[in-house]
């Protein structure tokens, strides 16, 4: 079943490089003010940390508001373009397993309808090649 789902999956590349930013929970109000801005991709609020994924352009514009931020740039965002029912087991595990075999570090953002991979820009071609071995296709716009 997983192989069939992978063969139906297309990769879509977000058009801009992204930055992963770790913040202190006290920055919540400042972060919320950025939420409506173009370039805000993801926000995660936990009791001990705030994480945001933003475009490099937004981070260059607004990063000075967060001098204590832990920011890592140079990431690409790949969407696994397939909507999976919540009872599917092992799909994302297989995707991350193949990337681990290729020694590609990956972060994952799961949204309601799809999963997204954070991959270093330098590793993008290799990641696409290895995922193609699973039957996943790359869709360029």
Automatic annotation (TrEMBL):
InterPro entries: ACT-like_dom_sf, CASTOR_ACT_dom. Residues 73-132 form the CASTOR ACT domain. Gene3D superfamilies: VC0802-like. This is Amino acid-binding ACT domain protein.
